[in-house]
Amino acid sequence: MTRSSSRPAGLHRRDWLLHGAAALGALATPAFATASLPDGRRPRLVVVMLRGAIDGLNVVIPHGDPAYARARPRLAIARPGEEGGALALDRLFGLHPAASPLMPYWQRGLLGFVHASGSPDSTRSHFDAQDYLESGTPGRKGTPDGWMNRLLAGLPGPHSASRALSLGNTPPRIFAGPAPVAFLGTGPKALDPKAIDQARLQRGLAKLYAGQDGLSQDYRDATQSRQDMRRSLAQAAEHPRGMKDEAPSRDPSADAGAPSARSFAADARRLGDLLRADANTQLAFTSVGGWDTHVNQGGATGQLANRLGALCEGLDALAQGLGDSLQDTVIVVMSEFGRTVRENGTGGTDHGRGNALWLLGGPLQGAAGGRVVGEWPGLEDRALADGRDLAVSTDFRHVLAPVLRGHLGLDDEALARVFPDLPGRSAPALKLLRS
């Protein structure tokens, strides 16, 4: 880690290196694996991808680093206690005031962040960076499948047609691969009865696809997963939140077809209800667009604040929909890269490197919950990547790996298949889960 002269007064170098009250510790062991849960409960992982590269420096704000405010004369969020200021997390970091719906989870030890994390590949292309984040093989193009599909194939325990769920209208790269995945469109009518649900048509298709080939199996998996989801949603209490949608990002390619934060907020409670009602579903993925804020980003108020507020309302709704199942669930929120430390001439920020990765859920309590963990490289010029960006000090795979091992119960062999190129010796020791 780069030593920085900008650490806050009273924060000694040892505290700076081990920021987060000893949150850096032994790598999490499978203390919260499948076998440790009571009968009928299964550990879950929900991944929310923020397409377009959210500005992590204005989400988890390093207010204790003096270089932050100097680099952003118009966009910097004020210190905690000041007008429009950040919500205090600790002596170094604060949370954007628009993220206030998540503060109760922080206070209960259910929410944590890994700052200065990201991909080791230096691309600033949305397309390439999202591809690497979803394939799990940074820098290697042509990987045929996504890391969540490989994870699905390696999960211990019995498989079902609805064990993995993708929420959205576009099949994501992260679930590409041979393992079957259930798909649910956005909007309250996604599972309204359609022709495929008619018994007569299903009987005809069942005869047509009665063989043992891959296409026949795909049909049976799709039909079964749709039936499972409709049954689960019928059992779950519906609490729709009608919210007006907002304008998409200026760069549609950055969003890759992902819905806006407002759309996510409207769908999130339904997703939580579905996951709570269907004990078979262990993996879920969705994405949210609109984070490519090159122009008029805003500070405590404005474009980013509005979208961030809707996103956090959605995450709160997702957690409420999960109910008691939140205790068995880890929600990961990540984005393809961060944004430049310095604001640009059009009131925004450009493509950068390091970002803040979010973690939410019961298994974090007693470990990363209520902490910002990871090595903070600082924002002084000499510490910046390429002289302009927050450096990546934690590979995003080194955050996911302890979750897959310690929460979902993957063994070393299965984990190596999910992240085949994961460097091991240089990994920071992140204690993310309770033991």
Automatic annotation (TrEMBL):
Record's compositionally biased regions (Basic and acidic residues): 218-231, 238-253
Keyword Signal part of the UniProt annotation: yes
Segment forming the signal sequence: 1-33
Listed InterPro entries: DUF1501, TAT_signal
Pfam families: DUF1501 (PF07394)
Renumbered residue ranges of the record's region Disordered: 124-147, 217-262
Entry keyword set: Signal
Keyword Signal applies: yes
Domain of life: Bacteria
Protein name per Swiss-Prot or TrEMBL: DUF1501 domain-containing protein
Taxonomic source organism: Roseateles subflavus
